[in-house]
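Hypothesis: this fold can be encoded by more than one sequence.
Test: take the structure tokens below, design a sequence, compare later.
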């Protein structure tokens, strides 16, 4: 009988190790289980790695690249959503041969004076985009500052965007 709790503890520890080993490395991630919580985000946005599908999925292409923040593709239907599977913004950077590479997703909530929204245990940023609370998740490109930190210094824009 005493071996049952020990087996459960060993099983739980092994599951935790496997979960952490499968998650991409990020600097200073406050919650290592955020990668598990981001599974619906991957499922919903993985198809948009092929950039032409973003527009077909309702995301409106923006042609201005902001260093550290990339190109934003906005789906107006998902603004104010805090559903992991409904990020309002897809973030791209320049890729090879005039392509764009998906690097992150972003949730955007209109600031109407309410409390700062939270998702994945993270408070949204205030003031990065005036009038909005925003939260980035750099799930397709590592951010040396952390999974949910913005901007990402490794995202650069071509000189002529």
């Amino acid at each position: 009988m005493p071996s049952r709790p020990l087996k459960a503890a060993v099983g739980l520890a092994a599951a935790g190790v496997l979960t952490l080993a499968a998650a991409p490395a990020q600097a200073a991630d406050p919650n290592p289980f955020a990668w598990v919580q981001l599974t619906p985000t991957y499922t919903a946005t993985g198809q948009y790695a092929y950039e032409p599908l973003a527009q077909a999925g309702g995301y409106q292409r923006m042609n201005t690249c902001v260093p550290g923040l990339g190109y934003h593709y906005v789906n107006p239907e998902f603004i104010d959503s805090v559903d992991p599977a409904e990020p309002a913004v897809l973030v791209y950077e320049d890729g090879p041969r005039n392509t764009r590479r998906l690097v992150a997703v972003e949730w955007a909530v209109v600031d109407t004076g309410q409390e700062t929204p939270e998702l994945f245990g993270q408070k949204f940023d205030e003031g990065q985009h005036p009038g909005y609370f925003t939260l980035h998740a750099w799930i397709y490109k590592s951010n040396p500052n952390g999974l949910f930190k913005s901007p990402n210094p490794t995202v650069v824009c071509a000189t002529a965007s």
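Helices lie at 3-22, 34-37, 39-45, 52-56. The CA atoms of residues 31 and 121 lie 8 Å apart.
Hypothesis status: open.
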